[in-house]
Structures are given as C-alpha cells and as structure tokens.
Amino acid sequence: MKSSLTTELPGRLIAVEGLDGSGKSTQIYLLKRWLEMSGAKVFFTEWNSSVIVKKATSKGKKRQLLTPTTFSLIHCTDFADRYERQILPLLKAGYLVLCDRYIFTAFARDAVRGCARPWLHNLYGFARRPDITFFFNTPLQVALSRILSGRPQLKFHEAGMDLGLANDPYESFRLFQERIYREYLAMKDEFGFRVIDGSATIETQQAVVRDMVSQAIDLPRYRWKTVR
Ligand SMILES: Nc1ncnc2c1ncn2[C@@H]1O[C@H](COP(=O)(O)OP(=O)(O)O)[C@@H](O)[C@H]1O
Ligand SMILES: [Mg+2]
C-alpha cells in the first residue's frame, strides 16, 4: 500500500503560520468565508487540544512536569489525533482544509525550547506538507503591540516562562516571541512559505491571499456538485 504521504489526495491543505498577533486568524477567517460563498467544500481547524490528551496536557503544564521532549511529544499526540481523525479524512473526501497553525508552529516553539530540528521534522513526518503555507511576516514590535496593548493575562507556557528567560511574564513573552520569529525566518525557504507582508492592511493581505490560492488551486473543482 502506498503511504498517504505520497499518494495524490483529492483535497488541498492550506495553512497559516506566524507569530501571535501576526494576523493569521483574521486572514484565514476571511479566506474561509470567501471560499464558502463561492460554494467550495471547506473544513477549518485550529491548533488546540483534542479531548484525548487535554487532561494530560493541562496536568503536566500546571505542575510543570514536562521537559522539552515530553512537552513536544504531548503536543504531537494532540496534533496526530486531529490529523488522523479530521484533517486526513477530509483531504481524502476532497475538501479544502484550512489550518490555523500547522506543524511549523511546533517546529518553531519546540526548537526554541531546545528540541533538535531534525528530530522534530521526523516526529511530524506522518503529516502531509500543506499545498500552501502562508507566513505572516509581521515585524516583532507590531505583533507584540497588537497582543500586549490590552495587557492580557499571559499563561505560563504561552509567555514562555518555562524557558527562564525573564521573571516578568511580558518581558518573557517578548523574548520568547523574538526567538520564535527567528525560527520562522530560518524555515521559510526550506518549507516554501508564501510570505505575506504583515504590515499591510487587512484588505491588501486578503487580496494577495485570495490571488495566491486561486493561482495554486483549481477552485472550481472544490465546489459542491448541485444535484439536478
Ligand atoms: N493587517 C492588519 N493590520 C492591523 N491590525 C491587524 C491586521 N491583521 C490583524 N490585525 C489585528 O491584530 C490583532 C491580532 O490579529 P489575529 O488575526 O487574531 O492574529 P493571530 O491569529 O496571528 O494571533 C487583532 O486585533 C486584529 O484585528
Ligand atoms: Mg489566532
């Protein structure tokens, strides 16, 4: 049997990546609405916890029991569950699958936490590479100010406090995001990211995103067939 990694599947996979506050969710939401309005079969999924490991993840995080390796493995289990139960079946069923964060989020975060990059790439080797990966290249200061202007409560791991970079959560978040940004920049050529200027307006970005999707994917193929 041929592996599902190499066989052509009818669906197409589109991912958005970038820092917190870089504009990913805004753009993928607008893309989703536009595709749905055109009558396309669309499935949207986010980088969040599946029921299967939610308890283990929150327990491990709360008690700070996780090492970079176990932290990474738990997130990978989480992703694998979502991948095998949702993303892959929908790609097989011929959907346009839109992912708000994909494996590159794990590559960036876990590498910053000290996991070896080749180990991470191998760990996530079961996951298909997206047909299009948009990278929202928003300057660090812009992304930070979008997130931090409201002085949100940052969670311990969200602020990267486990890395011991700073005692102040906001300062820790800054340093953590800076390192993640560097990882994204280092990955962009290897993984063929489509780089979107994160300082452009929402409308300009969306026009570029739609244009690139239309160029790369034969969209009429993904419309629901009307039954006569
Ligand atoms: N191009 C843009 N210009 C100005 N503000 C933006 C832009 N894109 C998004 N925003 C705003 O920045 C904040 C973060 O955007 P969001 O799409 O949630 O980012 P992400 O999903 O990458 O964390 C939101 O308040 C959003 O309205
Ligand atoms: Mg978001």
UniProtKB/TrEMBL annotation:
It catalyses: dTMP + ATP = dTDP + ADP. Residues 16-152 form the Thymidylate kinase-like domain. Pfam families: Thymidylate_kin. It is an enzyme of class 2 (transferase). Its EC number is 2.7.4.9. GO terms for molecular function: kinase activity. The keyword NAD does not apply. The keyword Secreted does not apply. ATP binds at residues 18-25. Signal peptide: none annotated. Belongs to the thymidylate kinase family. Phosphorylation of dTMP to form dTDP in both de novo and salvage pathways of dTTP synthesis. This is Thymidylate kinase. It comes from Geomobilimonas luticola. The gene is tmk.
